[in-house]
Amino acid sequence: MPSYQIGSAKKESSEIAFNRRESLITQLKTRFSTYGYKQIRTSTFESYDLYTNLSGTVNKDDMVKVIDSSGKVLVMRPDVTIPITRMVVESEMLEELRYFYIQDVFHNTSSNGSTERTQAGIECLGSNRPEIDAEVIMLAIHNLKELGFANFKIEIGHAGFFKSIIEPAGLSDSEMEQLQSLIQSKNIVEMVPFLKELTLSEDLRDAIQAIPMLYGSPREVMQQIPTSLLNENMRKNLNNLTSIVEILEDYEVGEHIVLNLGLINNMNYYSDVIFQGFVEQVGHPLLMGGRYNQLGDHYGVDLPAIGFAFEVDLLQQAIQQKGLLNGVSPMSQLVITYEKNKQKEAFQIAKLLREETFPVRIYPESMEFSINPTDTKITFTNGVFNITTGEDTQTFHSYQALLNFLKQNGGE
Amino acid sequence: MGNITLALAKGRTAESTIDLLKKVGIDFQDFHEDTRKLVFYSEDASIKLIFVKAVDVPTYVEKGAADIGIAGKDNILESQTDVYELLDLKIGQCKFVVAGKEGDFSPAKQRLTVASKYPNITEQHFRKKGMDVETVKLNGSVELAPLIGLSDVIVDIVETGNTLKENGLAIFEDVEKISTRLIVNKASFATKSKDIQRFINRLKEGLEAEYENSNG
Fold first, then answer.
1. How far apart are CA B189 and CA B205, in angstroms?
2. A224 and A336 fall within a common domain
């Protein structure tokens, strides 16, 4: 019968999980910075009014609220894009700014049931060009490739497309909400009777019904768009999407791009291109983002901007599911024991080794301690070092000889 | 290449679906009605079929254990999963209703108690109506609840209405039409787009042929 030990497996897995998460975050951060982004952070507690004044962003009931000592209501950061935008507006910097962040966001009701989610994202503020949009999407693709995903897609849509098609219909809020959720689940079966109940022109009804299936390779989708309903503004928006896709082809990542004009982001601040990334088998997007050119207007400044964020927890889960990170094991440590009368020398040795960045634990030989199979044991007696790794024991007569050995075998 | 995993709800849905698939040339040869196996492959091995409990189909699909699922709208609604819902197979047509003792509906009461096997659907329905209700989750014999005073009304699936009638209950309100639907994992739709669309189109053709036969 196979046996298993819950206790030890749990301990090991929490250490490994943490290490994997750290190395994942490091990888993302490194890649972000190679595209010119600099890390910043925003406050965890924010004014409740900052969000209630912006309609259609975060649901009021969804925010985690706290009350400060003067009785003022604060929320725990539900979103990162809004505070970064406000911060940039307040700093009155006008040149192009590239920021990235690794921060937690808090929600009362999230799809996976947890209140706290870590996001790793970027914001590029101050410029409005398809070249920038394409580079931002490329950065997301670069990250996913580097993490070892082979089969992934970035779905690209436009926040204004659905809005402008639907505008002449003049729907009520609840009708709008219903229609949005039908489009998001591509539920044409129920959309047909729903639209019949509304008084719409036949053209408009056909156009709305076509939205969910405007999905696939950019060229094919562009040809399927019902041209009769396109006004000047929509034509411009679609041309903009086409240029973004064309630039992405020059990055040689066209195979990862899908056009999804039925894409709707519940964050109302998105104004132009929006996108989300899927990897095989994970039913929720690992990353979401888009251009939000009008968010600055709320603070009285014209600030075009684009950004996206990875859901770190989901990303880690996807990586584990795919078995892409098998190589990361807990770091081996040096465990030094010493005779009490050689304490001073032993401390010096430990200090030198730590300065060489070896992880070192040091104990007097009279003390009891536990040792992991991956650790390397060093006994320091009579000025001689005995190293035990597994079954072998080797002897060194000087610190220099010890250090040379460790450096060769440390796998650096 | 291009393997698709299809999750089917055990029972009547599975049989009708497999019949339909056979008609469009997707054959699961080692399937027969009394089998206890849970996994089958189509002839060309391009489709893997798994049998799961009806209520679990949406979970399998949302979590990516299956790319496509076929299950009743009741289970899809109750699970509140985030998936695409692309096709109506028109099997197992029935509806969700609010029902209670005949002539004994007293909406003047402050707070209505509702018994149901489907607490999420129940809460959502009454929330939409702006009513604050107390939901009692039951696992069967829901019709009993209003008779013995466990609840004021029930929310349940009705096909013919006979069970309700025999227990002296009447329908107060229709909530939603139910039938068997095809759902798809959102990531699979993106990453296996062509295979999935091809599968759905074949199924669609089969449905249309069936519809024409029954009307011709």
1. 20
2. no
Span A157-169, average pLDDT? 89
Q: Which of A273, A295, A327 is the last residue of a domain?
A: A327
Q: Which of A289, A309, A327 is the last residue of a domain?
A: A327
The answer to whether the CB atoms of B86 and A111 lie below 8 A apart is no
* Cβ <8 Å between B191 and A111: no
Q: How far apart, in whole angstroms, are the C-alpha atoms of residue B122 and residue B163? A: 20
Alpha helix (H) residue ranges in A271-366: 312-322, 343-355
Q: Does residue A230 sit within a domain?
A: yes
Measured at the CA of A171, the angle between CA A170 and CA A175, to 5 degrees, comes to 175
Same domain? For A335 and A305 the reply is no
Is B82's Cβ below 8 Å from some Cβ in A?
A: yes
Question: CATH number, domain at A284?
Answer: 3.30.930.10
Using pLDDT thresholds of 50, 70 and 90, give the confidence band for residue B215: low
Stronger pLDDT, A89 or A329, i.e. the higher one: A89
Q: Which domain holds residue B155?
A: 94-177
Of all residues in chain A, the percent with pLDDT exceeding 90 is 54
Residue whose pair of structure tokens reads 């019709």 in the numeric block = B143
User: Is pLDDT larger for residue A103 or for residue A282?
Assistant: A103
With a CB-CB cutoff of 8 Å, which residues 174-213 of chain B face chain A?
181, 185-193
Spatial distance between the Cα atoms of B199 and B180, rounded to a whole number of angstroms:
17
- Tell me the ipTM for this assembly: 0.83
Question: Does residue B154 sit in the same domain as residue B170?
Answer: yes
Q: How many residues does chain A have?
A: 412
Range of the domain at A336: 331-408
Please check whether residues A280 and A148 belong to one and the same domain: yes
Is A277 in the same domain as A377?
A: no
Cβ-contact A147, A314 below 8 angstroms: no
| Identity of the amino acid at B97 | V
Contact A189 B186 (CB under 8 A): no
Q: How confident is the model at residue B7 (pLDDT cuts 50, 70, 90)?
A: very high
Query: Look-up: residue for tokens 């849509």?
Result: A157
What is the total count of domains within chain A?
Answer: 2
Q: Say if residue A243's pLDDT is above 90.
A: yes
Give B191's contacts in chain A (Cβ within 8 Å): 151-153, 278-280
Determine the pLDDT at residue A412: 40
Does residue A162 contact residue A186 with C-beta atoms inside 8 Å? no
Return the structure tokens found at A230: 């396109």
Predicted local confidence at residue A121, as pLDDT: 97
Domain identity same for A92 and A229: yes
| One domain for residues A161 and A245 | yes
CA dihedral B123, B128, B134, B136 (to 10 degrees): -30
